[in-house]
Write a structure and sequence with these properties.
about 140 residues; mainly alpha
Length: about 140
Amino acid sequence: MDKLKKLVSRETALYLLFGVLTTAVNYVAFALCYSGLALRATTANALAFVLAVLFAFVTNKLYVFESKSWAFSVLKREVPAFLGGRIFSFLLEQLGLWLASDVLNLHRYTFWRLDGVMMAKLALAVIVVALNYVFGKWIFRKK
């Protein structure tokens, strides 16, 4: 029962809520760039990443992990660590998208009205969310 309580804590619930919102920011930006502007998947993903990371930093810092200080001494540790973790998961996602779009040509296939590249992006999101939670726990840890 204690493990279940820890799994469904306030922090976890907020992380999932803001994770969904961050993912929405990412997907809307990606779809607009990829489908609307016809940018390459990796270029669209890079632009979507920047917007999503800005949103995620603020929401994770303030609401999920409750790191309320905006002091320079705190930010000089949190910002590079947050960006480093997000860049790592971004590069992992970029690799997956490159494989899906340029190597496997999954854009040729359609599932539930989404092309194969969008489906690959959905699958990659599961890995990215899990990694980012672990990184966030470490970055915004209370001392």
